[in-house]
Description:
With about 475 residues, the chain is of the alpha/beta class.
Amino acid sequence: MQLGVFGIREHQFLREYLPEFIDVHNAGQRYECDVLLWNNNFPFSPQTLERFPNLKLLINWGIEDANLQLEDILRSKVKVKKVESYAHQAMAEFALMLILQFERSQGVNARNLHGKKVGIIGLGRLGFTLANVLYSSFHCDISYNARTDYQLPHFSFKDPAEIFDSCDIAILTPRAKTTALARSMLDVAHPNLLIVNIARDSVLPFRIIEPCIRSGKIRGFVGDVVDSDTITQTDSRILIAPKIGYKTQESIALKRNIVRHYLKQYTLCESNSRSSVFVARHGQSKSNVDGVYDGQRDSQLTDEGRRQAQSAALFFQNKRIESIFSSPLGRAQQTAEIISQAIGIPVTTIPYFKEMHFGVFEGQSRQRVMQLFSDFFSSRSRSPRAKLYTPYPGGESYFDVYTRVLSPMAEILATRNNFVIVGHESVNRIIRGIVLNKQLIEMIQDKQKNGEIVEIDLAEELEKIHSI
């Protein structure tokens, strides 16, 4: 593999690949690289591609791929991957989760989002994803503002002042480098307006919005990217969430690990080599037999559970396993240790791989809980997205599990080959989805029986299920 890198300032994490750094984009020069990591702040077109005659894989660094001009033509000639493969959907779902969290804090039932008037300023990929979620799941009346009126059949085009004046929720998603909203927007704001900023603070600074909230001129503010680190959250009408943008060290590390994973996948394919992830669910536990929610409580394996773990150990004996990773919970640790003793590979415990927290349901009979909380389960069953973002009472949602699993999983994928993960049904759904590059909404549909092993070929992203 010959790797080219264009427009990426910090590139030490790529040193093992001996990349060629293309500091100046010379239109008359030809480059020999077959893999190219390209900063998505710069346009890439079929004409650009002509300068890379050997290119097979283009890795676009960043969330937006609007820089890919004539994208269909490009994708017909080279394989294109985004660094943040889940970024748009994940950030859209995160924003939706913040809105619901805010509404719950105000004593508003999530069902009341149905039919709300929502305006989205900046209808890029992120904004469009959010618009579709709100329209399809909550039947919201969607207005949008972008540089172009796209004549969308279900959404109406409005200028920003109209959105602030007529909508219940205004969501800011534009690219901060090219957009700033005038202070006068707030002068015409609807008194019941909730502003949700998932762009940078400079689009409409929080210091301008805050007095309008304190005076009751608008209803509230939700933001996950605010430039000031000095804001103290003392008002229930203000929800400042942790920044998940580009500047956090965790986010930077995640992006680098995703790049390294793509490079490893490419190398495996080119060399016709194999590397597999084996995602195993722990053996049967006493709580499984009793029909009780375990979650993050401990429960020991039954005799059948130990038999399943021993069968798994036999299965792994000829698989050239290099690493075993396990949830810290007892039933997973027992299963992993039985496998470890059989194949001579130590267990590494990953705290983030513990099961979903089922809140007040933990330790309770599943049958009884379903009777007592029938409304909760019926609302989740009506919409896949409800299942994704609605937390168990006092516990986690699947999206919460995703946010804690993604970074450690990306690091393992970038650095390890032929490894086993021993986990739990809910967390394993997310782990499998990350490995297979699935949409978030698809991840949560996969089920796994006790002792069942899912084998995923890292090069081909194909899975095979083994019943033990």
